[in-house]
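Risk register update: the risk of archive-format incompatibility is retired. Evidence:
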Amino acid sequence: MEKSKGAMEAEISKALTHWEKSYLGRGSVSVKSDILRDMIIVILKGILTPAEYSLCQDKDGMLSVKENRNSLVESGMEDLKEIILSITGVEVIGFHTDISTRTGERVMVFKLSSDLQNNWGED
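Archived output:
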């Protein structure tokens, strides 16, 4: 039986949390994944450490935290692409991410090679 959209979104969130803990050494407080047309949009909350929040008090520190965190995530890009492919059966052709040093949230957008949402007959 084919997975429901909600089940697939939950599986993606769980897999990304596991990846964070094993690859980055710690996980976010919460993860929410949404499939929208040919994209998977993931919001990860609570990813900054107290030390990183302290660094973010000035612009240089904020840019440093953003750059370091983005480099860490991008260094694991092949793993992330494989996770999405194994869950969805669809290839990742693009990846975008940013972090808010104010809220401690990261946004990840996986651009897929086909429209995954069509699998459930939704608009």
